[in-house]
Design a protein that fits this description.
It is a single chain. The protein is elongated and about 75 Å long. α1 packs antiparallel against α2, α2 packs antiparallel against α4 (84-108) and α4 (84-108) runs antiparallel to α5 (111-132). Helix content is 83%, strand content 0%. With 138 residues, it is mostly helical. 17% of the residues are buried.
Length: 138
């Protein structure tokens, strides 16, 4: 009887840990979609010289960055990519910095600086994704 109870408890703990991991992955995936949408919206607003649209999309991007810090990448990435979480945290800081600078540049009316900030945001995103998905590119 004790073995059955112990087995049930072990299964419950295992399933709850797995469910927590799935929840974490789902939030990260949702936030990544929001980040992509924000970057596209920055570009779209830039084409139409919509300064408020650029600022709004940059703020949305900043608001969705938290899961890059709170998600433990080692829980779902292969072992050779498990240190990617540290890399993602560094990218989060850089994306946040460039997005905040983008807002300042838009307020100052400095189109060249805002374009450079947008370019740097794209570079940060691409560098992280290319590192994590390196096998897919080969």
């Amino acid at each position: 009887m004790k073995i059955i109870i112990t087995t049930i408890i072990a299964l419950m703990l295992t399933s709850s840990l797995n469910a927590g991991n799935k929840t974490q992955q789902a939030k990260l995936a949702s936030d990544m979609r929001t980040m992509l949408e924000s970057v596209v919206n920055i570009q779209r607003a830039g084409f139409y010289n919509n300064k408020e649209g650029i600022k709004s999309a940059a703020k949305e991007l900043i608001a969705s960055l938290d899961s890059l810090i709170t998600t433990d990448a080692s829980m779902y990435l292969p072992e050779d990519k498990s240190n990617a979480g540290k890399f993602a945290k560094k990218r989060e800081k850089m994306i946040r910095m460039y997005a905040e600078d983008l807002i300042v540049a838009i307020d100052a009316g400095d189109f060249d600086e805002s374009l450079e900030d947008y370019n740097q945001i794209l570079k940060q995103c691409t560098s992280c994704h290319s590192r994590i998905r390196q096998r897919m590119w080969k």
